[in-house]
Design goal:
mainly alpha, about 45 residues, elongated, 1 helix
Length: about 45
């Protein structure tokens, strides 16, 4: 039983680290909006 408890604690700590990293990325990283250009071939335009 102690090994099961250790495994569950390890999984909880790992999940906490992942959740903390996701929250930190959400709070501290701002996306930079950019203009997007894409060339469309003439033969794909409706006639």
């Amino acid at each position: 039983m102690p090994s099961l408890f250790r495994f569950l604690v390890f999984c909880a700590l790992l999940a906490g680290l992942v959740l903390g990293a996701m929250i930190a990325l959400d709070l501290f990283v701002d996306p930079v909006p950019r203009e997007m250009n894409e060339r469309v071939p003439i033969n794909r335009l409706p006639q």
